[in-house]
Design goal:
heterodimer; A: 679 residues; two-stranded antiparallel sheet; 1% strand; B: 19 helices; 75% helix
């Protein structure tokens, strides 16, 4: 057997089997089983690093002829392997973190089982060799993340979980449809570097469908609505992975589909333009929302969306620029790696703070710097990374994407996009100043006097990630040359296009100038925000996609559930006991039942009432006729047919008879028509 | 091309289990004997069908005339790939559900086991008879027998709702069969030949008569396949004992309706004729409406078995849609979904029954958190639901893959909308149950029965994993479907 086949199969199979072993045998090992899931992920990490550093260099396709339609293929190439290694690394760190973090939690067997399942599925997404395989693992990933989101079993968790499931399911359907379209154009589901057949129109539809499918997972505005709810409610290690790695599955999918359909070397200006603006809007909306949050995890979740915006912006620039876009897509992929590192460590540090203090609200914390110095150190490193400060990894990728934006052209919308880019970078800096200042600086609340630093397992989980944040920040060209160049070749860029980007220069005058502007904007936003209390500004509820989505789902809910006690929901406001009883009705009761849906419901009831009334009148008349008939020759027949002659039976019987009469009439009509037709 | 081979094997496959069924009726209250005979009948049928599979894979068709009335009327049994496909499905699931039925009836009902198992065996063997019928007359006769023999099963509990449901059941199905009789007679009258033929039998008939006969067939078989205007009997009979709703009404009876429609399109008319007349469109509309109607109704149900029954109404229309598109890919997808549905819906019904046995609860709103206690049943239900929704690695996904491709190939993109809506609604109504089972808070006052018997949990597992095998190794099923596709669609 092939070495690569065994290795790759093992990488996906070990977490999968590990989930089974944890489920069936884990709890029999008493205290040792908390470490079992970590050991599984460590094994996977070791195998993945063999694959990663072993450097097959080429492009290996691994086929499994005995699986569905023989179309399940894994592929080993530099892009897939890099992302798989990143997944394994971050996952192992989070698993190590959860050894301590989950010790107090109930139902942690379920947590570990689904963590491992999601791990396996995520590796599968990144190692998939064609779209069908990608889809299979993508859907498994979507489903296995649900138990992680609802782990706490609070109302918020279920609410977020339901929303997540609906969105992800719709996205998966769009994706499946997109893949079928792709199959129709290309004749196969394999990844390509540009399709030759098919009209442009058809290609755009295909990409739109696939983009919706992957975009839901990636949290692209306006498909992001599940993300700020779902990521914060899950336990911290799971949120770290949801934000750090799982949404990258969406970004990876967007890259793969875009490059397969349109090809890297051809300029697709219209598509590129749309993708660029989707990216910019995503960045802007999410940063804006992030600044208004009090809950640290929710703020981080919004920043995940915003950083996905950077990635999408880079992808858009790449497709807009065609052959010259290698820098942009390189920046995007670099940012995927960077974001995984610093966002995971941020979620984990916030989780560590929560573990010691029991608080996610930043405004209720403060002064923890002296109590938790190591965690504070890790937080500041990761914050510097995400804010794009030189010598930390975020700066490299953000600068690359910024350079790509400046390559787009001059003036007009490009300038607008660039200005927005700088403001958004400023907003990011402001919100991380806010995060660090509110949690670690200022006055320590009295009840946290006895707080200690995080347990060793947690710190051991976070430290490697922060180390990488620095390493990737100070050795960008090394990383670029070793990993990014082969990866860009694999995506389909020709050597000619790559010559100009073989070395990246991220400290040009323009870069430093924009860095200074961003810093200035960031400090300005922070100062203004704290002075005029802008961070507590709230908008009316109809402002945003989320509200309309909830109204829509509420409509569906009322349409499909017969037993909704509307008055109770109206009376019981958000969060009251009556609403908490049934959690599903609680979900929709928490959003305000506004006039439109009330109108729809009352309309429906009116229709139903009039229907019942007319039915009653009709039944009465038919019963009268049947009553007449009953005295005649049919009487005996009734007696034979009717099984019981009690009152209720008879009522039912009469109703059946109505139906029978109807059928007989139907038959007569058919006979009549038949005679007309034949004769 | 296929050779014909005369053999009594089909007759044995139908009438031996039938005879055993009659024997069970006469065996009375001798429980050991009854159990033995029930299992024996299902094993017999399964082995016979398996034997026929091996004969067919040599490229032969088995034929057997057994009654000739003169006037060009005769009864015959004939096994080809399409018939065998349905026969295998029925026989397989019959084998799976017998242990469940034995245990379930022992736990829930204490009366007249002989009547129940006698008619259970009889109706299953008649269902096999329908699939092996060689001409429309034979098919029609077995069809009627199937209806009659399931009546005592529906009425089994003898409560007023059961009696009412059974009566409605008879009214619906007999009405359908009387329409079918017209169609069968028209086929005999106008058709050039009595047996099923690849090129169809309706030559040189006036188009309007053809259209009319086709519509009568659609109504006649549609009642059994529970298509939209005639679908209400199916949820009504969900009051019957679970093995009956599971095997007969979710699998055997409705599948026979689908089988009838397929036979009509493929063998009585022919693909060419249906295509040239454009009457496939009628079926497309009916099945699309049924898919959406059934799914929406399923969402509204609080009764567990009624929800599953409405889901059956919706799901059984996928194969009809797949047939009506007249496209090989859609045909394969439809048959895949049919098999998916047969295995997994059986398992889901059995899960509902098992929960009923353990807790005595039938309403979904009363099942909060039950899955936390009944983990095996809950997990199997979850896997089964995911399979029906069409998650990858389940046969539902394979079916979806083939079926969704077809409207793109035939340029009818509107149908994709129906498929998407159907899929979304399917996820909504099934995942809500999963959510209730696992994530809602368990009522502490709920009393659970003893440990679940293996006779109950094993058939559920067999149903679910039997289905999953086709999802992971779809080639097994494709090897049976491909000869049909080559035969009817010409490669």
């Amino acid at each position: 057997m092939d070495f690569h086949l065994i290795l790759t199969s093992l990488i996906i199979a070990i977490p999968f089997l590990g989930a089974g072993i944890t489920y069936w045998f884990g709890h029999k090992l008493k205290t040792a089983w908390d470490y079992l899931p970590f050991l599984f992920s460590l094994t996977t990490l070791i195998l993945t690093s063999i694959l990663f550093f072993g450097g097959s260099g080429g492009h290996v396709i691994i086929k499994y002829p005995f699986l569905p339609f023989s179309k399940v293929e894994l592929s080993i190439n530099s892009l897939n392997v890099l992302l798989a290694f990143l997944t394994a690394l971050v996952w192992t760190a989070a698993m190590l973190f959860s050894v301590s973090y989950m010790k107090k939690s109930v139902k942690r067997r379920r947590f570990y089982v689904f963590m491992l399942l999601a791990f396996s599925a995520n590796l599968g997404v990144f190692l998939a060799g064609n779209f069908l395989t990608l889809f299979i693992f993508f859907e498994l990933l979507g489903l296995s993340a649900y138990p992680l989101i609802v782990h706490n079993e609070s109302i918020e968790a279920f609410e977020a979980g339901t929303k997540y499931l609906i969105m992800v399911f719709l996205g998966d359907l769009a994706l499946l449809l997109g893949i079928l379209f792709y199959y129709k154009i290309a004749g196969s589901v394999a990844f390509a570097t540009g399709l030759s057949g098919g009209s442009d129109y058809f290609k755009v539809i295909t990409f739109a469908l696939m983009g919706i499918g992957f975009g839901v997972k990636a949290g692209v505005v306006p498909l992001h609505i599940w993300l700020p709810d779902a990521h914060p409610v899950s336990p911290s290690p799971a949120s770290a992975l949801l934000s750090g790695i799982m949404i990258k599955a969406g970004a990876y999918g967007i890259i793969r589909s875009l490059f397969s359909i349109f090809g890297p070397e051809i300029r697709s200006i219209d598509v590129g333009f749309v993708v660029i603006w989707v990216g910019v809007v995503t960045m802007f909306v999410a940063v804006f929302m992030a600044l208004l949050q009090e809950n640290a995890k929710k703020m981080l979740a919004y920043h995940s969306i915003s950083q996905m915006g950077y990635i999408v912006l880079g992808i858009g620039c790449a497709i807009y620029l065609g052959g010259k876009g290698a820098l942009a897509i390189g920046g995007s992929l670099y940012h995927i790696v960077n974001h995984a590192l610093f966002k995971t460590s941020l979620f984990l540090t916030v989780g560590a703070v929560f573990y010691r203090t029991g608080e996610f609200n930043m405004y209720k914390l403060g002064g923890l710097l002296k109590k938790m110095p190591i965690i504070a150190f890790c937080t500041i490193i990761a914050s510097l990374g995400i804010s794009g400060i030189p010598l930390f990894n975020g700066y490299v990728s953000k600068t690359l994407i910024h350079q790509a934006v400046t390559h787009l052209g001059h003036g007009g919308w490009v300038s607008l996009a660039e200005i927005l880019f700088l403001i958004i970078s400023g907003g990011t800096i402001a919100s991380f100043i806010k995060l660090f200042a509110l949690i670690f600086l200022g006055k320590l609340p009295e009840k946290y006097e006895s707080v200690k630093d995080a347990p060793p397992f947690m710190i051991a989980g976070i430290l490697p990630l922060t180390a990488l944040v620095i390493i990737l920040g100070i050795l960008p060209n090394r990383f670029w040359g070793t990993f990014m160049i082969p990866l860009l070749k694999n995506l389909g860029y020709k050597t000619l296009s790559l010559n100009s980007v073989s070395i990246i220069n991220i400290l040009t005058g323009h870069d430093i100038q924009s860095l200074i502007i961003s810093l200035f904007v960031g400090i300005l936003i922070f100062a203004m925000g704290t002075k005029y209390d802008l961070f507590h500004m709230r908008f009316p509820c109809w402002f945003g996609v989320n509200y309309w989505f909830e109204q829509l789902t509420m409509g569906l809910y009322f349409l499909t559930h017969r037993e909704v006690h509307l008055p109770e929901i109206m009376v019981a406001g958000p969060g009251t006991e009556a609403v908490k009883e049934g959690s599903i009705s609680g979900i929709y009761a928490r959003t305000e039942v506004h006039r439109l849906s009330f109108f729809v419901i009352s309309l429906k009831r009116r229709i139903k009432y009039s229907y019942l009334k007319s039915k009653a009148v009709l039944t009465e008349k038919i019963n009268y006729i049947i009553g007449k008939l009953r005295k005649g020759f049919l009487a005996k027949l009734y007696q034979d047919l009717s099984a019981s002659k009690t009152g209720i039976e008879f009522e039912l019987y009469v109703q059946d008879l109505n139906f029978g009469m109807f059928l007989v009439l139907f038959l007569l009509v058919i006979c009549f028509i038949s005679f007309r037709l034949i004769g | 091309m296929n050779q014909n081979m005369v053999s009594v094997l089909p007759i044995v496959a139908v009438f031996l289990p039938g005879a055993i069924g009659v024997a069970i009726l006469f065996a009375g209250e001798n429980k050991k004997l009854r159990e033995f005979l029930s299992i024996l009948a299902s094993v017999c049928s399964f082995l016979m069908v398996l034997a026929m599979y091996f004969i067919l894979s040599k490229g032969e068709v088995i034929e057997c005339n057994f009654a000739d009335f003169g006037f060009n009327l005769f009864l015959c049994l004939r096994t080809d790939w399409l018939g065998l496909f349905f026969a295998m499905l029925t026989a397989c699931l019959w084998l799976v559900s017998i242990p469940y039925a034995l245990k379930y009836m022992e736990k829930k009902f204490f009366n007249s086991g002989a009547r129940f198992f006698g008619f259970f065996t009889l109706s299953a063997s008649f269902a096999v008879g329908v699939t092996l019928a060689g001409n429309m007359l034979t098919l029609f006769i077995f069809y009627g027998l199937l209806t009659f023999s399931t009546y005592p099963l529906v009425i089994h509990s003898e409560t007023s709702t059961a009696i009412r449901a059974a009566k409605n059941y008879l009214i619906y199905l007999m009405a359908g069969e009387s329409v079918l009789l017209f169609a069968v007679l028209a086929t005999i009258g106008f058709g050039s030949s009595q047996s099923f033929a690849r090129v169809g039998v309706m030559f040189g008939v006036e188009p309007r008569i053809l259209l009319f006969v086709f519509m009568m067939y659609v109504v006649g078989f549609g009642v059994k396949a529970a298509v939209f205007p005639f679908s209400n009997w199916l949820p009504m009979v969900s009051v019957a004992p679970t093995p009956v709703t599971g095997l007969l009404h979710a699998v055997a009876v409705v599948n026979m309706g689908v089988y009838g429609i397929m036979r009509v399109i493929l063998n009585v008319f022919s693909l060419k004729l249906v295509q040239s007349m454009g009457i496939g469109f009628l079926l497309i509309i009916i099945s699309s409406i049924t898919i959406i109607y059934g799914s929406l109704m399923a969402l509204r149900q609080d009764d567990f078995k009624r929800r599953l029954a409405f889901s059956t109404v919706a799901y059984v229309s996928y194969p009809i849609l797949g047939m009506a598109l007249l496209n090989p890919s859609a045909f394969i997808g439809g048959l895949f979904l049919l098999v998916t549905h047969a295995f997994l819906k059986l398992a889901l019904f059995f899960c509902a029954g098992a929960i009923d046995v353990q807790t005595g609860k039938n309403k979904i709103s009363e099942l909060s958190g039950v899955g936390q206690k009944l983990q095996v049943v809950g997990t199997l239900f979850t896997i089964g639901s995911l399979g029906l929704i069409g998650t990858p690695l389940t046969p539902g996904f394979v079916g979806k893959w083939y079926l969704w491709r077809a409207p793109l190939e035939t340029n009818q993109p509107g149908i994709i909308g129906v498929l998407i809506i159907g899929s979304v609604l399917c996820a909504l109504y099934l995942l809500y149950v999963v959510y209730t089972l696992f994530f809602k808070r368990l009522d502490d006052n709920l009393v659970f029965g003893d440990k679940l018997s293996y006779w109950i949990s094993f058939p559920i597992g067999a149903g679910v994993f039997g289905g999953l095998v086709f999802g992971i190794f779809p080639k097994i099923l494709l090897s049976i479907i491909n000869p049909m596709v080559i035969y009817y669609f010409g490669g």
